[in-house]
Design goal:
Helix content is 39%, strand content 21%. It is of the alpha+beta class. The chain folds into four domains: 238 residues, 2-Layer Sandwich (BirA Bifunctional Protein, domain 2), CATH 3.30.930.10; 108 residues, no CATH class; 51 residues, no CATH class; 153 residues, Threonyl-tRNA Synthetase, Chain A, domain 2 (2-Layer Sandwich). Strands 1, 2, 3, 4, 5, 6, 7, 8 and 9 form a nine-stranded mixed β-sheet that branches. It has a four-stranded antiparallel β-sheet with strand order 12-13-18-17, with helices on one face. A three-stranded antiparallel β-sheet has the order 14-15-16. A hairpin with a 3-residue loop joins strand 15 and strand 16. Helix 8 packs across helix 12, helix 12 packs antiparallel against helix 13 and helix 17 crosses helix 18. Bound molecules: serine (SER). The site of serine has 10 residues, from strand 8 and strand 9.
Length: 583
């Protein structure tokens, strides 16, 4: 049987729906309410507030297929199973079923619905440490289902403990499911998790702890399940393919690269995999309204595009990005954001390629000059390559590695700070960052953002002002809103004062759940998309602010202290940007 991605996704969603799960949407790659990460790295990202205990409008059992970007493993891209863009199937229990339910359903889906013989499966469980005991319970459940004990290995925290999402929050041991991928060789009786023929296909995280501020792990009130199954890997194994790039999710892109370069995949695997992976990620990122730039998501995008262009050079191809992007639109014809924005996506790719082409050649010859007969490239030199030739630091490091040379990254950072062109912590740092942080600081600033937006509408007497973007770190908020001119000093002062009046009034922040219709009727602002089948949560601060929002928020405005606007500037045409802090 030929397993397509659509078929696997459908089967998965149907299976969990038949077990009373409700489907949550496949949301934008850029998290709406989680400013601590640049991209969704897992299906659970949109669920952080609900994993922390807030009731979800759709109930306690959820399922979805989520597009993800994970750049942490970017250096692994080039092997058979690592990707920066992938689709993740996931099911969640928010305080409902736990280990038994999760493991039994995973097993049933794999063996009955996907018809994988249990003889080809093996699992890992948590070995235990001083915070959390060895997970014998999960192992017993696997044994009760017919997984023999030789196929269960116990691994330490690095492998089998997931989370918390941020510094603090829900976390717990995980049990991971592996598949023996060699078609003609029977799976060995004993499971060796280091043997690459065992491919991890599904991760069941059993969240029974909350990590507190001081670093201690407490048993949580609500036990959650968070699972994730990689679509590309799973269809590869179901179709008996040894390499994800041979599945329908990559093959058309690889074929296009072969055609353009006149070279064979079998002889150029690494470069072609990197190009195919990065172009797909770039197309999806642009489709979610990101353009190449020197900051945040835009910088990640720039690096992906520039990296793939460089690998294209190795294959002897130039001016090719929009051509190899074409197949991505056909593979993912079920993503409307791709189809709708196709023209603009291809233009963005071409523009970035043109820009980079202007300096790439010169940059490469500069690099060769700099690196000749050297053991190390100085930070100053790496910075020159960055600033004058558009070489992302990682690209210089990668080029240097090929010649066995080091790059002084620390000095690069110093140079970087000196020039203050962009904040490395805000962009490059986050390129590798982990998951969401619902820290006190960000939660407070989240509520302050609602107050600020409401105050802007009132002071500027303009009800059509809408939020165009928000980015919150534990230190500051940044709100982009629609407005066509610079605000005056007086206006800014009035806005700031109005926010502070709400803080001083010690208003309760109330969360209500209602239908989208009701929310509209009550005058709530926010994104009125049909998320959650029309059920939404609305946060109100008396009759001052009412917004559809997933949270999290503080409970009373008095917790905010004092609000201060630090800067007002233009963000883009018709959009202003305010940065503010709480003191
Ligand atoms: N959050 C877990 C993971 O990323 C399960 O999806 O692996």
């Amino acid at each position: 049987m030929n397993w397509t991605r659509k078929k696997l996704i459908k089967k998965y969603l149907e299976f969990f729906k038949s077990k009373s799960h409700k489907e949550i949407p496949n949301v934008s790659l850029v998290p709406e309410n989680d400013p601590t990460v640049l991209f969704n790295t897992a299906g659970m990202q949109q669920l952080v507030p609900f994993l922390l205990g807030q009731p979800h409008p759709l109930g306690k059992k959820l399922v979805n297929n989520q597009k993800c970007i994970r750049t942490k493993d970017i250096e692994e891209v080039g092997d058979t199973t690592h990707h920066t863009f992938f689709e993740m199937l996931g099911n969640w229990s928010l305080g409902d079923y736990f280990k038994k339910g999760a493991i039994e359903m995973s097993f049933e889906f794999l063996t009955k619905n996907l018809k994988i013989p249990k003889e080809r499966l093996a699992v890992t469980c948590f070995k235990g440490n001083r915070n959390s005991p060895r997970d014998e319970e999960s192992a017993k459940i696997w044994i009760s289902l017919g997984i023999i004990k030789e196929r269960i290995v116990f691994l330490p925290k690095e492998d089998n403990f997931w989370g918390p999402a941020g510094q603090t929050g829900p976390c717990g041991p995980s049990t991971e499911i592996f598949y023996w991928k060699l078609k003609d060789v029977p799976a060995p009786k004993e499971f060796d998790s280091d043997d690459e023929n065992w491919v991890e296909i599904w991760n069941d995280v059993l969240m029974e702890y909350v990590k507190e501020n001081k670093g201690n792990y407490n048993l949580s009130k609500q036990k959650n399940v968070d699972t994730g199954m990689g679509v590309e890997r799973t269809i590869a194994i179901l179709n008996g393919l040894e390499d994800d790039y041979l599945t329908e999710t990559f093959k058309p892109i690889i074929e296009k690269i072969e055609k353009l370069s006149g070279k064979k995949y079998s002889e150029n695997k690494k470069a072609m995999r990197i190009i195919a992976d990065h172009i797909k990620a770039a197309v999806f990122i642009i489709a979610d309204s990101v353009s190449p730039s020197n900051a945040e998501q835009g910088y990640v995008l720039r690096r992906l595009i520039r990296r793939l262009i460089r690998y294209g050079r190795e294959l002897g191809i130039q001016n090719f990005t929009s051509k190899i992007a074409e197949p991505v639109f056909s593979i993912y014809d079920d993503y409307s954001e791709l189809q709708k924005n196709k023209k603009q996506i291809l233009q963005e790719l071409e523009k970035e390629e043109e820009n980079f082409n202007l300096t790439l050649e010169k940059g490469l010859s500069k690099f060769n000059k700099i690196s000749r007969n050297k053991k190390e490239i100085s930070g100053e030199e790496a910075f020159l390559l960055y600033q004058s030739y558009g070489f992302p630091l990682e690209m210089t490091i990668e080029l240097a590695k090929e010649k066995n040379i080091k790059v002084d990254e620390k000095e690069f950072e110093k140079e970087f700070k000196k020039h203050q062109k962009l904040s490395r912590t805000a962009s490059v740092g986050k390129f590798k960052s982990g998951l969401a942080d619902s820290s006190e600081g960000t939660t407070k600033l989240h509520t302050a953002t609602h107050l600020l937006l409401a105050a802007l509408k009132k002071v500027l007497k303009n009800d059509s002002i809408i939020q165009k973007g928000s980015n919150i770190t534990p230190e500051r908020l940044r709100l982009d809103f629609s407005f066509s001119r610079k605000l005056t000093k007086e206006e800014l002062k009035k806005v700031e004062d109005l926010v502070n009046v709400q803080i001083q009034k010690s208003c309760k922040v109330v969360r209500e759940e209602m239908s989208l219709e009701q929310a509209k009727k009550k005058g709530a602002i926010g994104i009125f998309d049909e998320k959650y089948n029309g059920r939404v949560s609305v946060y109100s601060v008396e009759d001052f602010s009412k917004e559809i929002c997933a949270g999290p928020h503080i409970q009373n405005t008095k917790e905010l202290g004092k609000f201060k606007i630090k800067k007002e500037s233009s963000s883009s045409a018709g959009v202003r940007r305010i940065k503010g802090i709480l003191i």
